[in-house]
Amino acid sequence: MSEQVHNRLAVVRAERKVSRQQLAEAVGAHYQTVGYIERGQYNPSLDLALRIAEYFSLPMEALFSLEPFSPLTHEVYGRKQ
With CB atoms 3.0 to 4.6 Å apart as the test, which of 6, 41, 58, 79 could cross-link to 62 if both were Cys? Predict the structure, then answer.
């Protein structure tokens, strides 16, 4: 049974102004694969996830998780009740 891997890849890419094509070329993947990962349609291999994390100089758990990420605004500004 395969579990969905949640990610913040699109957010980090936008923040760093990196296109799907640029990221794909840097990590040895197809640009469509990057899109599939961002939309949750494909779980990256461990190798690919590590290469993506290394490219952004972030710990892998900052980009990928087995649990859904809370919205960044909640983490940065706190959750308003």
Answer: 58
